[in-house]
Backbone:
């Protein structure tokens, strides 16, 4: 999966953005166990620091952006930018009526009430992240139909 967002920051020039996909069945969130054995996780997720958003076009495909991570490009005041998020892989079965929820936030998804975090990250400075509604915002998700 790939998510493209058109964002702007206020009162800061850099931020960590966490995006994720949750699955709901009969109105209840379905928890997943990740490959590392963490229980109570979500379907798929991605994280990207705004200042490290540069996509390497030579290594990327239309569905999987690859990042350089070697140049810091903080946003200027009032600047809008396109962010491309590459999600962790997922092979998730959705039944008719199941819900898929896209979550965008400024902190990691799993908190200490669910599991103990084995790592830490440098938190964002205080500020606001604005997601601008536009035709740039797109979630690409491969679908493999299953015959009943």
Residues:
């Amino acid at each position: 999966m790939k998510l493209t967002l058109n964002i702007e920051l206020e009162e800061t020039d850099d931020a960590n953005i966490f995006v994720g996909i949750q699955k709901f069945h009969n109105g209840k969130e379905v928890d997943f166990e990740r490959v590392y054995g963490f229980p109570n996780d979500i379907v798929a997720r991605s994280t990207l620091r705004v200042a490290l958003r540069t996509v390497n076009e030579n290594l990327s495909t239309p569905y999987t952006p690859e990042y350089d991570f070697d140049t810091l490009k903080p946003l200027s005041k009032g600047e809008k930018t396109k962010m491309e998020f590459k999600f962790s892989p997922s092979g998730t079965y959705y039944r008719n009526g199941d819900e898929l929820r896209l979550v965008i936030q400024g902190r990691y998804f799993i908190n200490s009430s669910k599991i103990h975090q084995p790592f830490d990250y440098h938190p964002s400075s205080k500020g606001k992240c604005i997601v601008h509604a536009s035709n740039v915002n797109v979630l690409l998700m491969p679908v493999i139909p299953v015959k009943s």
